[in-house]
Design brief:
seven-stranded mixed beta sheet, 12 strands, globular, alpha+beta, three-stranded mixed beta sheet, BirA Bifunctional Protein, domain 2
């Protein structure tokens, strides 16, 4: 199966269950992805986080655990991606997280660039920063995070889960100001985040093109 769909707006439970189900769709190879939004502000927590430790007490927002790892992400103002791909379709020969990430982040960056976002991995720019210990995904910029090449603002938060022969990626691309003040949610919130003015359908179409190209190149090698 090879498909990337624009999947509308849903609540946290539907979005997370549909993302996790993508893995079963690529059990025989290829890729399957959904680009979607949220019915209201939500926080997704990495599968090893807990609300008690990641969020401020009394935070005015609903939360749900993601099937992937990583730090907490504030949603509702973002374009969100759930993407599953077989390791074979990505040309990855081993389950090493770093190798899988490198293979899957390339087409995501290329699709965002096609949609007008001037971005790259932080290690390819002069911007790498950290807010120290924080539960907020966007408050930390590591060398392999996706940033605006001009400002250094993080423009895409990405978390992975690698299984036996496939990977699930969940990515958040801020497309406006948060609907809930991050300072009411996290003790150390992100201070500067880049906003993309793109379109979910446009991004889905661009991502499908780049994923298909990787699959063609992998088949040749």
């Amino acid at each position: 199966m090879n498909r990337v769909i624009e999947d509308g707006v849903h609540d946290g439970h539907i979005n997370m269950s549909r993302d996790e189900a993508l893995l079963s769709e690529v059990s025989r190879g290829g890729f399957s992805a959904r680009v979607y939004g949220w019915d209201e502000p939500w926080v997704t927590l990495g599968r090893f986080q807990t609300p008690e430790r990641a969020l401020l007490a009394g935070a005015p927002i609903k939360s749900i655990i993601r099937p992937t790892g990583g730090k907490a992400v504030l949603h509702g103002h973002d374009v969100t991606l759930g993407l599953a791909a077989s390791l074979e379709s990505l040309g990855v020969q081993e389950r090493k997280i770093s190798a899988v990430y490198r293979a899957i982040i390339g087409p995501i960056i290329s699709a965002l660039q096609d949609c007008g976002l001037n971005c790259d991995l932080a290690e390819n720019t002069r911007f790498v920063a950290s807010a120290g210990k924080t539960a907020d995904c966007f408050a930390h910029i590591a060398p392999n995070d996706v940033v605006d090449v001009n400002t250094g603002a993080k423009v895409c938060g990405c978390a992975l889960r690698v299984v036996r022969d496939a990977v699930l990626v969940q990515a958040s691309i801020p497309a406006g100001k948060p609907l809930v003040d991050p300072a009411l949610v996290f003790s150390s919130p992100a201070l500067g985040v880049g906003y993309w003015r793109g379109d979910r359908t446009q991004f889905a179409e661009a991502l499908a093109r780049h994923l298909s190209q990787i699959q063609i190149e992998s088949a040749r090698t």
